[in-house]
Here is the input.
Amino acid sequence: MTQTFGELDHPARLLMGPGPINVHPRVLRAMSVQLLGQFDPEFTGYMNETMALYRQVFQTQNRWTFLIDGTSRAAIEAALVSVLAPGDDVVVVNAGRFGLLLSEIAERCDAKVTLVEGEWGKVVDPQAVEDVVKRVRPRLVACVHGDTSTTMAQPIEAIGEICRRHDALLYVDATATIGGMSVPVDAWQADIVTGGLQKCLGGPSGSGPITISDRAAAHINGRKHVEAGIATAGVVSGAGRRIASNYFDLAMIMDYWSDKRLNHHTEAASMLYAARECARVVLEEGLEARFARHAQAGAAVVAGVEAMGLSVYGDKAHKMTNVTAVLIPPGVDGDRVRSRMRTDFEIEIGTAFGPLAGKVWRIGAMGVNAKKHAVLTTLAALEAVLRGEGYGFTAGAGVDAALGVFA
Ligand SMILES: Cc1ncc(COP(=O)(O)O)c(C=O)c1O
Here is the structure.
């Protein structure tokens, strides 16, 4: 029997978790624009515009600034697999789930991984990174800027400086901060930085912006071995070992985004439209204004939950502005609270992983939701649900405290 199911017709849920978040209406509209052939001059013009837009978002002059088709982890994987050959040393700064993800991907590249371990809920001391880098002399240091699993924002400047001093490349995962907190790639002296649309950039997941310094690009191009079916006469392969992934081969993908327009993959046009519109929205608002808006919304979440007698997890001095982890009070069933937020109020807040599973909720205020109404609505709903769960506090205190931050 043929089954067609219904049209997608769910209620407009307010997404206040650690991502994805509600998509900006302009981005949704851009995604419904008709496709063009990927080598149509109008489309390659959009590709060039997208590169120019993301240079500004990443605060970089890097020529190689473009999109990886796939979710944020696709961009991470492209970065690591294109730099790391089997046996290469890599130092991974790890203090959360996404640090562990970097090390797991590096291991799959058969790289030799050395971890600089930090405690969850804290950032890692750059001196500890330098000590390990001095000993290991890695090709690459990899770290996460904002690790959404712990909500900590690792300061990157000092690590960038250490990498230059010891001639290592620096990779940074800025998936969860790009467009909401400053990601000054050139000032950081970072070599490869990747992002994602579904958090502060206010888009859907499915495209990973990436930026690559000239020195990282030179290393990657040294590993270029163009796929047989698309190589043109006279194409010279690099001396380095072939990159282990075809889809994530940054050497070929750079050729695709260059004037050579190497026929690598079929660009995900609707995602390019989305990424391009996300960047236009961000830049029209202005980077500084956007960072300030996210900081204010995050401060209001913190003030609100604290006024309700709840505690914020982790080192508040290094907390990401856009995501807040809130300790679930004793006697309260965290999953039931999340479920009632959803069923009674159409609001999603986040759960947690690993050592924090069942211990914290994660509340994000990002993109179009880093706004007064979204924060107040979420806090009001949380107050009502917690009262229903028998958790005692002064009614209205959370919303009032948050209103004070916006005043
Ligand atoms: C810091 C960080 N890195 C990487 C990812 C992976 O992103 P994606 O799920 O888009 O592949 C996430 C997703 O939450 C993240 O927060």
